[in-house]
Amino acid sequence: MDTYILAIESSCDETSVSIVKNGKEEINTVVLSQMDTHANYGGVVPEIASRMHVENITMVIEECINKSGLSMDDITAIGVTYGPGLIGCLLVGVQAAITLSYVYNKPLIPVHHIAGHIYANNLVSDMKFPLIALVVSGGHTELILMDKDYSFKKIGGTLDDAVGECYDKVARVLKLPYPGGPLVDKLSYEGKDTYDLPLPLDDNTYNFSFSGIKSAVINLVHNEEQRGNEIRKADLACSFQNRVVTILVKKTLKALKEYHVENLIIAGGVSANSKIRSEFEQVCKANNVNLTIPNIKYCTDNAAMIAAAGYYAYKKGIRSGLDLKAKATTNLFE
Ligand code: KG4
Ligand code: ZN
To answer: Would the pTM of this model clear 0.90, i.e. be above it?
Structure first.
């Protein structure tokens, strides 16, 4: 029998609801982004974000179901991002999911946000195991080993800033509007790699550190400003992006080789980055690695990825009572 998961994602500034069949076939997804509102403030304002989720959640749920051609009778279970994320935002999605679960008497499946990002890849093609997942988002930078579905083992991660966070801070110092990551990406193609920036944490571990390169960019900009020199923004964006992508590729390839894994998936908002996509495509081809990256629209936050992950959590027997708690921080690993 087919399994339909209706899932809700509200951990940051997107209110999203989706229905996915058997963890891979997207039936319908609605994503309502608040990005334009937060752009006025140069970043996500948590209080405004939670209020907007409250205003929109019911409408987004209704729209998703109405346009899916299904009714609540067809839904097998309700999935929801319970964390990590902004607590006020998570609470709205979790409360909505609890209510649906109670009213329609459906199982409630708690889904970790990063499990969602990883399973966005299952909407592209069936994930093959063992695999390594490189998770690069605004809040996470991790190398994860999966031997089977819904089993996550951390093999490395950032010791300080997440890569998306670093992109956004570099964008800010270059006076680019929020969210800056995609703009730094775009700008880098107009420049050359002429700035002498350090390669971040180029050691023998699987860990990353991006605070050094972030500080290097900030200091460089401030020093040049004080001297009255012009900053070649596109060159700086290009140099920064090259360094970041070089270290991501280097450590990921090392992990694939040392763990004898031939399948790589990339997940999280920064997997929309064009240099990450092109470099990984090239090196994976050269090294006979099977690469999957989500379609651009499923790189950033959405509920389709939560519904896909929710299906495998459901199959694994993961359930929550109606007392499900939202968690601002929570560990994915066993
Ligand atoms: O996964 P996501 O939507 O939210 C979190 O779970 O954190 O990721 C958002 C992050 C932001 O930092 C944004 O600047 C970054 O992903 N991002 C990019 C690109 N597109 C989104 N960073 C670099 N290049 C891009 N093309
Ligand atoms: Zn995310």
So the answer is: yes
Geometric angle at alpha carbon 27, from 23 and 32, rounded to 5°: 105
Q: Which two tokens stand for residue 267?
A: 């997940």
What gap in Å lies between CA 249 and CA 255, rounded to an integer? 10
Is the model's pLDDT at 334 over the cut of 80?
Answer: no
Residue 37 has pLDDT above 70, yes or no: yes
Pocket test for ligand 1, best of 121, 270, 276, 279 (most atoms within 8 A of CB): 270
The pLDDT of 48-77, averaged and rounded, is 97
> From the alpha carbon of 14, which atom of ligand 1 is closest?
3
Average pLDDT over residues 114-140: 97
Q: Which two tokens stand for residue 296?
A: 């651009």
Report the percent of the chain where pLDDT is more than 70. Answer: 100
Integer CA distances (angstroms), 11 to 8, 43, 165, 201, in order: 9, 15, 16, 30
Percent of the chain with pLDDT over 90: 96
Please tell me the predicted confidence (pLDDT) of residue 40.
Answer: 87
Protein residue closest via CA to atom 4 of ligand 1 = 138
C-alpha pair distances (Å), 224 with each of 16, 96, 172, 228, 252: 43, 50, 16, 6, 34
Enumerate domains of the chain plus CATH numbers: 4-119+298-315 (3.30.420.40), 128-293 (3.30.420.40)
CA of 126 to the centre of ligand 1 (A): 24
Residue with tokens 């097998």: 76
